[in-house]
Amino acid sequence: MKMVAEFKTTKKKNDEQDQLPEPVERKQILSAERVLNVLKRISDEDCRLLGLNPEYARPDWMILQVLPIPPPPVRPSVMMDTSSRSEDDLTHQLAMIIRHNENLRRQERNGAPAHIITEFAQLLQFHIATYFDNDLPGQPRATQRSGRPIKSICSRLKAKEGRIRGNLMGKRVDFSARTVITPDPNINIDQLGVPWSIALNLTYPETVTPYNIERLKELVEYGPHPPPGKTGAKYIIREDGQRLDLRYVKKSSDQHLELGYKVERHLNDGDFVLFNRQPSLHKMSIMGHRIKIMPYSTFRLNLSVTSPYNADFDGDEMNMHVPQSFETRAEVLELMMVPKCIVSPQANRPVMGIVQDTLLGCRKMTKRDTLIEKDVFMNILMWWEDFDGKVPAPTILKPRPIWTGKQVFNLIIPKLINLIRFSAWHAETENGFTSPGDTVVRIEKGELLSGTLCKKTLGASSGSLIHVIWEEVGPDAARKFLGHTQWLVNYWLLQNGFSIGIGDTIADADTMEKINETIANAKIEVNGLIKQAQEKELEPEPGRTMMESFENRVNQVLNKARDESGSSAQKSLSESNNLKAMVTAGSKGSFINISQMTACVGQQNVEGKRIPFGFVDRTLPHFTKDDYGPESRGFVENSYLRGLTPQEFFFHAMGGREGLIDTAVKTSETGYIQRRLVKAMEDIMVKYDGTVRNSLGDVIQFLYGEDGMDAVWIESQKLDSLKMKKDEFDNVFRYELNDMNWKPNYMLPDHVEDLKTIREFRNVFEAELQKLEADRLQLGQEITTTGEGTWPMPVNLKRLIWNAQKTFKIDLRKPSDMHPMEIVEAIDKLQERLKVVPGDDAMSIEAQKNATLLFNILLRSTFASKRVLKEYRLTKESFEWVIGEIESRFLQSLVAPGEMIGCVAAQSIGEPATQMTLNTFHYAGVSAKNVTLGVPRLREIINVAKKIKTPSLSVFLKPGVNSRKESAKNVQCALEYTTLRSVTHATEIWYDPDPLGTLIPEDVDFVRSYYEMPDEDVDPDKMSPWLLRIELNREMMVDKKLSMADIAEKINHEFDDDLSCIFNDDNADKLILRVRIANDEAPPKGGEAQGESAEDDVFLKKIEGNMLTEMALRGIPDINKVFIKKGKVNKFDEKEGFKGEEEWMLDTEGVNLLAVMCHEDVDPSRTTSNHLIEVIEVLGIEAVRRSLLDELRVVISFDGSYVNYRHLAILCDTMTYRASHEMFF
């Protein structure tokens, strides 16, 4: 590196010439020595002004005067054999530095010329620079003799394999094992089958105590090679730290144990280990298991645990780590064991459920007609761990005892459980206590009364049986239930049998005929569309070209044909069909698979469109050119059962390949996104004061998730008062105190009399009703303006009431013994006790109110005094129990201080991103707006991209305007940026020398009529003989609501008197604009005029180009297209509750938020932009935080995923808490 200084020249007095006072070169190379002298002269005060602390960082220290040499452990040498040693790259480079330093010194001593000394200095500098960093841009790399580049200090530290990330933050560890995993449904979900070869190799250090000394003596005796079926020990560590290897210690005196010694024993059954599968995308990718030593060489894993690990048994390998201290074991036991991880904070739902054979078995076993013989039932009982010798009474006694499949579940469902769910095939019309199709799953006090179990009840979904057991009875009960279900059902399925064959995919002859007819009709319809398009009779859809509209219509027709043929195939399959059994159970497959196997595979797409032309105007050489029919563009009319033709097979492979490439590409994309999210939020935790802070102490949130709750304990709950109409609301909550004949059957007569006679009581109930009405109003108008009735909240109140009714055997026909006043007082006191933010100061009280607002509204409406008495009929005892439960569960739901919620949030967003498809092509729905979704959009949001792929506004209109399509169309025309080009059909330049007449036959009449009324301003002599003739597109003019006069006025306004513009009537056959250049003075007669007018045509051509592209007729810049669409808005009405109203709204391509919001008919309070940079510039930081949240929600929820609000909120707050919208590097 050379540093060149350039000096300014100075002027001598009385001398105009530039010259230096002395003959000094203007450019000089600054040596390091000279730079050092300059930097040394910077004073300490100046250092501080530069932002440097002179104690720790003086500028002159930037010039190396001494080179620090690292010790040998940093650069170890390797003995190749007895004679030769290989040195490390750093040692090699240091030797080069010393050698060249010595050479430089020698040259200086010998008085070598300056250029040679400079070259030697350069060489020394090169070696020092490459010692630190051997990847300097523009510099050759220092190499070993073999030509291999040396590994510099810099490359040892940075990047993934460097010292920090490769050896400090992540490293290879001892006490770990890795092998292939295989399934074992007979072990518990928290168990792990470990091969003997691993168990006899890994050790756990156990301290000798009076309680285990005998057991450890036996293990030491067995030593490192115990007899078959036993485990031993490998080392004894004495109190002085001396380690005895039991392989070599043969004397029994050396094997003597004393209290306080440590024995490194082999793994035993029941030891706790950590089990992990990469990629570790969320915290359930590493969980604690109890080991069970087994024969053979693979890890054995229960099938239900595969989903959180995202593991399958096609050759996956997993890692096991053995904790080495009691502290680690305690953490594994309390925080990481599988049962504790069943419910995930990501979407507040279980991540484990019943899968595969067991799920299918549950569906078959719980059907109404499934009966179990005595011998099979007795054997099933043997699989039940808690069997106490009492056999449940059979359902049928004569002629022989027979049990039902549902009775098996009565054995294993915990007795405290109450649940109502619906099977996947439940019809909405069947809403009785039970249903004809046995689809209402009703469990009361642990007894399955009705319903067929399927994935909806037993799967990993919110509110499923597993979720309820985990929340109500605890993690261990959920573990037991999952284990027992598998063991009992698998045994029954083994006896009952299940198989699937080709026969299950064959539909009957009538169905096949119907399917063929459907596909044939679709082909005829597509041919009709092709004909329409060729004859230009096809009506283009709004915002689309005719070709796009044609493709969209064809896709709709073909997809409809696939769906109709598929649904015919499904309906034809009988209830006993094995394929249908698997699909309805939820164990494997979907209805799409059935329709593709039986009916028709359907349209194959590449990049969201039909197969494009790859050859010249055709997809394959087997088709004719310009064939837009279904077959040539990738429609597969055959089913998998019939088999695909060669061309169908080829198109199908094209569609399938896209999915494979997509998966390969997105893995690295989402992996990097997740890493950045984790790095940005890894230090965010809940502190003891309830605030969420990072490692610097910056407050990210004042309360986690704005309610201080842990997502694990949250469930979706209905706010039922919101959906009620006013009459219904009064019926549920209001006492008829003014009715003299009011004698309710749900209250004791004394209590009724109190309510009627005591004024204070009446005031209390009036106040209670007013509060409930205010709650309803606040919910409808402020909190949930969309009419969303369910919200995630802690403590499932409805289930708690049901549990109380069952536990305390409440008779719903008897009146309650409670006084309504007791209920109101108890609920008021309970609300005061439910503290999230402690403190009596004004801010704490306000924060507490905000944190518990929604839960208190739910509490008040659920436990309104009339509901408790009339609907639930709770007794004093049961009501007190419920109040106590609410309090304890609410406190249990509070997030624990020290919880690293930044990591949890990053995982909860990164994990669904991995499941996302990379490119999600635009909706083929009503809107023609193209929207970026999936991983590319997530990347745009996190990167805070200044230029996004599809910028768009959602424009809402003011009341009155939004109800009429015509008004919305007017706003659409006013917003859409319209240039002259967009309404022009054709332009021509003519030589037409007579301005008052014309050579163009079509224009003769209108030109003559235009000039019949002489215009004093028009001087024909000044007009150019060259004419720009513009023919306008009538359809576009009508669509954009423009008239000829508007356009002419715009041209005159833009060009003043420089152009003369005449036009015909709006009703003429062709809409023509005639434009001429108006010169300032008439051209002279003769040959000179010819030359000048010849230049006019060139000038006119330029004007034409300028007018078409630059001249805006109306609209807002950057709003390229505006689409009109019908949306639904829920409006809250005090009497009617929420009412859905249709409204017209606009979507735009391109953004200009400020200008659009300023339009008089646009509702600025609801209009949003997906361009975050624009939002922060126009509306500020609070708006961009909300916009960020909404955009993340759209990206994550488009494929049906759900992530709890608090995780998204942490990400948004991390990006915006410094009052600027920041990206993650």
What is the count of structural domains? Answer: 8
> What is the straight-line distance between the termini?
30 Å
Mean pLDDT: 89
Which regions contain 5 or more consecutive residues with pLDDT less than 50? 922-927
Protein structure class: alpha+beta
The shape, in one word, is globular
Percent in helix: 40-55%
CA gyration radius, whole angstroms: 41 Å
Largest sheet: 6 strands, mixed
Amount of beta strand: 5-15%
Name the strands of the widest sheet in spatial order: 6-12-11-14-5-13
Helical region count? 42
Structure, explained:
Its EC number is 2.7.7.6. Its main location: nucleus. The protein is α+β, with helices and mostly antiparallel strands. The protein has 8 domains: 3-62, no CATH class; 72-168, no CATH class; 176-350, Barwin-like endoglucanases (Beta Barrel), CATH 2.40.40.20; 356-448 and 457-496, Enzyme I, Chain A, domain 2, CATH 1.10.274; 504-644, RNA polymerase Rpb1 funnel domain (Topoisomerase I, Chain A, domain 4); 709-894, no CATH class; 903-973 and 1119-1216, no CATH class; 979-1114, Gyrase A, domain 2, CATH 3.30.1360. It contains 42 helices and 40 strands. A 6-stranded mixed beta sheet has the order 6-12-11-14-5-13. A 4-stranded antiparallel beta sheet has the order 7-10-8-9, covered by helices on one side. The chain has a 4-stranded antiparallel beta sheet with strand order 38-39-31-40. A hairpin with a 2-residue loop joins strand 20 and strand 21. It is globular, with a radius of gyration of 41 Å.
